[in-house]
Amino acid sequence: MTVKTLSVAFLSAALLAACQQGAGFDAPVIPLTGVDAPADPAEEALAAICTGDAALQERMGEAVNAARAANGKVLLAANDDLIRIAQSHACDVAAMGRATVAGSNGSNVVDRARAVGYPTCGVAQLVAAGGTPEGVVAAWLRSEPHRVELMGQSSTELGTGVVRGADGRLWWSVVLGDDCA
Known about the structure:
Elements: H1 3-18, H2 54-70, E1 77-78, H3 80-96, H4 109-116, E2 124-129, H5 133-142, H6 144-151, E3 157-164, E4 170-177
Parallel strand pairs: 1-3
Antiparallel strand pairs: 2-4, 3-4
């Protein structure tokens, strides 16, 4: 997968996050005749959670915060809901064999945040396959869209997930968010 493909996927997820329910924009509903109803939205649910590696999850959180500290940014606090989202998605991408922010059930990070009751005003997700926590963060920092999310000042919390897939690779998921206060 190219950096361009990953960037487009990531930006799409970020734009979807901006389209959350209750964002203060109430468009009128105009009935259309002769037009099929839109498909149901993606499932607002988490994929099955598998066992991760707590030490590697902690190292990823430390690597994210080290990068933020080096850039004069606020450090992020671990959040249990974001950890659940991240670990579930790490399991899902490992099972799919594809590093993508889209879930196997059609969900995105906003859907998964809603599933656990986490505010959706500022959630974002980064995913990767292979590497060490430090190497993955370094790669994200070299990609402008990923760097923008990782260094964003609106984030105050994070969750990290990792699982070793059947292919032997580590599958990473980092979810950034804030409590919308």
